[in-house]
Every structure is written in structure tokens, then in C-alpha cells.
Design a protein that fits this description.
6-stranded mixed β-sheet; alpha/beta; Rossmann fold; 1-aminocyclopropane-1-carboxylate deaminase; TrpB-like_PALP; 13 helices; ACCD_DCysDesulf; binds pyridoxal-5'-phosphate; 1-aminocyclopropane-1-carboxylate deaminase activity; 17% strand; 4-stranded parallel β-sheet; 2 domains; hydrolase
């Protein structure tokens, strides 16, 4: 059924690999390969598809006709759920944090255009969104629904992220991904072959808490935590949704060399970090490193951005 849904939606799997050409990396003998999960689907790309796929299948198999999920007003996850519901014929409800603001921003305009019904939760209610009280209220209002958690990270999603690494046929030493909730890293590490390691790059300032969170997610999804991964917390460039001129210069240079403008909220911070670690020898010379391009993130990129420094 997994393949049926992917085929029905025109999803491109496995996502392609692209070698980065760089004189500097050549000197180090390092092979840097991009795993282009952003090319999976125009509306459901990157880790959004990886996380939503098993949840869509579960919702359809369970006979649900509605997906309900949570997110902030600029949430790319809300966009992705709206797009997914539209594509597979499920109704969608987006429970948005905070008050309604008219006119709707582009993220919510997109969601509504894909048929998503929006409901606004005050901040206290939003904090309690997992409680029986709030969920009962939502069920009274919207009837039966399949609940997709905020950010799409649940055990099904984490298990499906293990496919990212399992799809790669050539040997590699290290696979890297940006981290928000840690769900993508938790799954990817579980799919690693012996001898390879995974490295997450926190897009948030103060990302040390993610180590416990990734362990917890692995225990929930796989019944055990793995020891084959770590998280770099020093490449947040001021914090989530913040950037520096140095980061944006890197984005421009990478686009000049590689021809692709990568989003900076998650992906460019990771790529900067990967190349920096290679340059400083933290990643051993002559390694083969995979960097997972977890998606474009236009909503955050254009509407929720601020400069740091
Ligand atoms: C492009 C992109 N990369 C990475 C992440 C973070 O993934 P995770 O929450 O699984 O750590 C996100 C967040 O959803 C994202 O939009």
C-alpha cells in the first residue's frame, strides 16, 4: 500500500543523490553527496512526505475521512497536511496557535485554498492540545478525525524516516540532517548500516535538549535507543528563523557553485556545518558524507525571518 500511495501521488522514490563538486573538498579527499529529498514531490517534499506517508496510510486504512493537526500560523507542517489531504481526498482541520489575523498570511492562505478548515486555539489551550479535555472538545466540534501531531513527528513518522538511510546503496561514513523536533534524525539513525554514523544539526539555539528527545523518540518508535548518532548544536546562527550575513553569503556561494538555492532555516545551516566540520578535520579526510536536503521551507523562509547580529 505504501508504494500505491506514493505512485498515486507521483512521489519520486528513492530520492536522487547528487555529488557536490568542490575543489576544497577534493583537496581533503572528501565526497559530499546530497540526498535530494526536496525533489520527492512539489508539495510534499522532504521530511514532510517521510513523516506524513505512514500517517496518511493509517488514516485511509482506518476509514477516517478527516485529518486534524496543530501548528503555528507559519507552520510548513500545516501547509503540508493541507496539501496531502487535498491530494488523497481527506478533509483537513488545522488547529492554529493564537488568534486569527486577517488577511491570512501566505501559509494559511495556501492551507485554506487546499480546503483546510482552520480553528484557532488560545495559547493556553494550544499548550494543552494533547490533553483529553482539548481533544474531546475538538471531537465534539469536528467528529471523527485522524490526529497528526504538531510537526508530524510520531512513532510511525520516525520509523518511516529510517527509509532515508536504507535507500542509499553506496557505502558512506556519515549522514547529516537538520534537526527541529529530532524525528528525522531519530529514524535515519535507526536505518544505518553498521559502521556508519548520523549527525544532526540543531536549527534551534540551545539544542542540547534534543539528545534526550531523540533517545526518547527512538525508544517509542523502535523500543531501544541507538548509539550511532550525535547532534551539533553550534550552527544555529542566532536561533530558529534567524540568520547572519555569513550564512546568507554561504547560501549565495553554494547556489553559484551548485545551481540550487537551498533554504536557510534548516538546510543551509546544516550544509554550512557539514563543510565546516570537514574543513576542520572533525569529519575525517577521505570520508564519504551524505547531507539530506530535507526540503524547501518557503513559509518560514520568507515570512518569519529575522537577522541575527
Ligand atoms: C526543511 C526541514 N528540515 C528539517 C526539519 C526538522 O525535522 P525534525 O523535526 O524531524 O527534526 C524541518 C521541520 O519540520 C524542516 O521543515
Amino acid at each position: 500500500m505504501a508504494d500505491d500511495l506514493a505512485a498515486q501521488l507521483g512521489v519520486r522514490m528513492p530520492s536522487p543523490l547528487e555529488v557536490v563538486r568542490s575543489a576544497e573538498l577534493d583537496r581533503l579527499g572528501t565526497r559530499l553527496i546530497l540526498k535530494r529529498d526536496d525533489r520527492i514531490h512539489p508539495q510534499l517534499s522532504g521530511n514532510k512526505w517521510r513523516k506524513l506517508q505512514p500517517n496518511l496510510e493509517a488514516a485511509l486504512a482506518g476509514g477516517h475521512d478527516t485529518l486534524l493537526t496543530f501548528g503555528g500560523a507559519y507552520s510548513n507542517h500545516l501547509r503540508a497536511v493541507a496539501a496531502a489531504g487535498h491530494l488523497v481526498g481527506l478533509q483537513t482541520v488545522g488547529a492554529v496557535r493564537g488568534e486569527e489575523h486577517q488577511p491570512l498570511n501566505p501559509t494559511l492562505t495556501f492551507a485554506v485554498a487546499r480546503g483546510m478548515h482552520l480553528v484557532y486555539l488560545d495559547r493556553q489551550t494550544y499548550r494543552d492540545k494533547g490533553s483529553p479535555k482539548v481533544l474531546d472538545q475538538l471531537h465534539r466540534e469536528f467528529g471523527d478525525f485522524y490526529l497528526v501531531p504538531e510537526g508530524g513527528t510520531n512513532a510511525l513518522a520516525v520509523r518511516n524516516c529510517a527509509e532515508i538511510t536504507r535507500e542509499i546503496e553506496e557505502p558512506f561514513d556519515l549522514i547529516c540532517t537538520p534537526c527541529g523536533t529530532g524525528g528525522t534524525l531519530a529514524g535515519m539513525a535507526a536505518g544505518l548500516p553498521p559502521g556508519s554514523r548520523a549527525l544532526g544539526f540543531s536549527a534551534l539555539k540551545g539544542g542540547d535538549f534534543l539528545r534526550d528527545e531523540v533517545r526518547r523518540l527512538q525508544e517509542v518508535a523502535f523500543g531501544t535507543a541507538f548509539e550511532n548518532w550525535d547532534i551539533e548544536t553550534g550552527f544555529h546562527f542566532g536561533g530558529f528563523g534567524r540568520r547572519t550575513p555569513e550564512l546568507m553569503e554561504f547560501v549565495d556561494q553554494f547556489e553559484d557553485h551548485h545551481g540550487t538555492p537551498f533554504e536557510w532555516v534548516y538546510v543551509a545551516k546544516m550544509l554550512y556545518g557539514v563543510i565546516d566540520l570537514c574543513r576542520r578535520g572533525v569529519v575525517a579526510p577521505r570520508s564519504t558524507v551524505i547531507a539530506v536536503i530535507t526540503g524547501p521551507d518557503e513559509g518560514v523562509q520568507s515570512h518569519n525571518a529575522s537577522w541575527c547580529c
